[in-house]
Amino acid sequence: MMKDDGRTIAGNAPELPRMRPAAIPEIRPLPEYLATGARKAIYDDTKAVLQVPWMGVVAMAFAHYPRFYETLWQGVRPLCMSEQFVSACRRLRALTEDAVQPLAPPAIGTRLSSLGYASREVTQIAEMIEIFSHGNFPYALMATQARLLLEGHALSGDGGTTPFTGRHGPETEVPFVLMEPHHTDRDTRTVFDDVKATLGLPFVNTDYRALSRWPSYFALAWDDLRAHLATPGYAQIVDGIHQALVDTALALPNPGGLRPEVLQAAADDDATVEEVREVVRLFQWLLPGLATNVAFFRAQMVS
Asked: By residue range, what is the domain housing residue 152?
C-alpha cells in the first residue's frame, strides 16, 4: 500500500479490483444550471475547494442522491483542502503522464497547423487539456474513497493534515464551453457516438465535450487515441492508475472521520446502498481511463 508521500508500507490493503458494472446503471446527473439552493451551494463549494471550473459528471451524478453527496463531500472536504491531498493528486498526475509515454502519442501540432490552426488556438486547446489534467484526479480520488466506503472498507484512522494555502489549479483564461448534442454537426455527433460505443458508456464525458469546441482537433486526437484503447499495453496502464488511486485513497489521512456505515446510511436515505454503489462503481471504473486519455492528449500537444 502506498503512503501519502509515495513510499510503500506494509499492510493488508483490501482487494478493490477495477470493476465495470455488469449492467450500466441509470445515470441522472443534476446539471449545474439546474442546481438551486443547497445543491447549488455544495456545487460552488466543490469547485472552489478543488479549484476546478466545472462539476464533473461524476459529482453531478452523485448529487442526484443529495444526502449521499452531502455526506461524502463534507467528509472528504477537509482532506481536499490539505497539502497531503494536493501533493497526492500531483503525484498521480505525474504517474499517469509518465505511463502513457510508451504509447508514443503522435505530435499533433503540425497537423493542426496544416488545417489552419493559429498558435493562439493551439495554446487554448493546451490550456483546456491542462484544466482536466489537474481536475480529474481530485474527482477520481473522491470516487475511489466513496467506493471503498460503500463496500465496507475503512479509510485511514489518521486525521492529521496540513492546510494547503495558495493556488494549485491552473490559471487560464480560455472559456470553458461544452459542446452539447444539439450544438454539434453530423461529423461531431459521429465522433461522439464512436466515443460512447468504444468506451461502452451512455454519455460523453465533459473532457471530450469541452475539447470538441475545436471539432477538427478532437477528431484527430480521438482517432490517434482510439487505436490504443483495445491493446494490452493500454489496459495495463489503466489498471496501474486504478491501483495507484486505491493505494492513495487508503493511505491519505481522514480528517473528516468518514466511516463506511455513515456513508452507507446516507445512501439508504436517498435510495439503496446497492443502487448508489453501482453508480459509484461505474465512475470509479471509468475515471482511470479518462485520466489516461487526457494524459495522451497532453502528450500529443507537447511532443
From this structure: 32-159+171-302
Is 4 a member of any domain? no
Q: pLDDT (tens digit, 9 = 90+) per residue, 206-237?
A: 999 999 999 999 999 999 999 999 999 999 99
Contact yes or no for 191/159 (Cβ under 8 A): no
5 in a structural domain: no
Taking the C-alpha atoms of residue 125 and residue 121, their distance in angstroms, rounded to an integer, is 6
Instruction: With beta carbons less than 8 A apart as the criterion, state whether 303 and 105 touch.
Output: yes
- Is 62 a domain residue? yes
Helix, strand, coil percentages in the chain from 3-state DSSP, rounded to 5: 65, 0, 35
Question: Got the DSSP string for 248-288?
Answer: HHHHS--TT---HHHHHHHHHHHS-HHHHHHHHHHHHHHHH
**Digit-coded pLDDT (tens) for 236-266:** 999 999 999 999 999 999 999 999 999 999 9
* Residue 52 identity: V
C-alpha dihedral sign at 19, 249, 135, 55 = positive
In-domain check, residue 3 = no
Report the domain count for the chain: 1
- Separation between Cα atoms, residue 267 and residue 260, nearest integer Å: 11
